[in-house]
Recover the amino acids of this structure.
């Protein structure tokens, strides 16, 4: 797997950015970023943690959707250029590279993600 992608994937899973900076708002020892105590102190704390995490997921989803839309646009321009020069709209060998990359990074579900993304990007030209 691409080392930079692996580093980013591992960092995201651990709640840090690629430099190791905490991105969750809490310190690694279970205290709040300001050092005032445990984030999940009782039900109210648990709800706050869940609410905050859901907001972060919503923000990540917005970014993922925007990136997918950008990818769709770039893919359409490639397809147009390929067809304008007499080539095929889809390059199956390239698609296999993409499926393989996603599978290596995300396991078996990565194959499904890649195939869905490729289907979205084929769209209408």
């Amino acid at each position: 797997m691409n080392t930079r992608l692996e580093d980013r994937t591992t960092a995201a899973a651990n709640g840090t950015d690629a430099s190791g900076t905490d991105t969750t708002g809490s310190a690694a020892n279970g205290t709040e970023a300001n050092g005032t105590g445990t984030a999940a102190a009782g039900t109210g704390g648990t709800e706050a943690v869940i609410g905050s995490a859901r907001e972060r997921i919503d923000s990540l989803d917005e970014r993922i959707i925007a990136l997918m839309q950008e990818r769709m646009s770039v893919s359409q321009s490639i397809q147009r250029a390929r067809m304008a020069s007499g080539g095929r709209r889809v390059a199956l060998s390239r698609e296999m590279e993409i499926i393989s990359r996603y599978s290596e990074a995300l396991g078996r579900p990565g194959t499904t993600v890649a195939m869905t993304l490729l289907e979205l990007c084929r769209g209408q030209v």
